[in-house]
Structures are given as C-alpha cells and as structure tokens.
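Schema walk-through. Below, the input block comes first and the output block second. Nothing else is stored per chain. Lengths vary across the set, and this one has 148 residues.
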Amino acid sequence: MMRWIASIAVVASLVLTAATLSAHAMLVEAEPAAGVVLEQSPDEIRLTFSEPLGQASEIRVSAENFQAVANVLMLDSGAPNIIAASVPPLEAGTYTVEYDIASVDGHIIRGSYEFGVEANEGLQWQTILLGVAIGLGIRLLMRRFRRS
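--- output ---
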C-alpha cells in the first residue's frame, strides 16, 4: 500500500512539474527568422510567444562585436503574445536579437538568435543605372515633343 501511495506521489509531482514548465512563454515565431540572411535591412523585429506577456518585455539588437544598435524602439504590437521593436536601417553584417520577456506568471525568459543583412552593392548599382536610364528616356521624350 505504501509503494502504491509513493508511486502516485511521484507521478503527481511529475505531472505538476511538467505543467509548471509548460506554463512559461516560449518563442514560437521570429521575424526576421533565426539564421536568415536578408537582402535588405528589416524595419522591425517581431517576436511571437506561446502565451500572453507581461509589461516588462524588451528587445535589444546588437551588431558584430556586441555593439548595441541605437534607436531600437519598442512598438505596440496589438497582440498580448507579440512584442515588436522598430530598428533603424542596418548595414551589412550579422546581428543578434536578444529578448527578455516577462511571462504572465512573473518569470523572466531570456533568449537570443542571429540574423544577417547581406551587402547588396549590385542592387545599388542597378538602382543607379535604372535612374540614369529613366532620366535619359525622359530627356529623349521631351526633345521629341518639343520638335512636334
């Protein structure tokens, strides 16, 4: 009989421990995603969690060599389980997103992941060439209309 009661107590404690562990918010989606390399800088960082978050939640972004990115501003995401922050234009490189979120049960959950922004100088030259081509096209059209 004692073994049976002890077995029930062990099972009950395991169930309660599992329920307690699953009560903490977990990151379920990140934009930009972990490990992705973007062609251009994102406008914002958006993190979705498995449950509503408390007020004391924060996103920080740092560049290579742990240099904090300035002007990262927290945004109102409009959803209780999402935190978001606007970021200034980021140069090419690897960035680390760090988050400290407060679960509604009061626990602070910390995590981080990396994403990259690639140097896209070819796109800059394409944009410049497109602008020159459009400008030349407009000049040719204006000459044609003046002759008419």
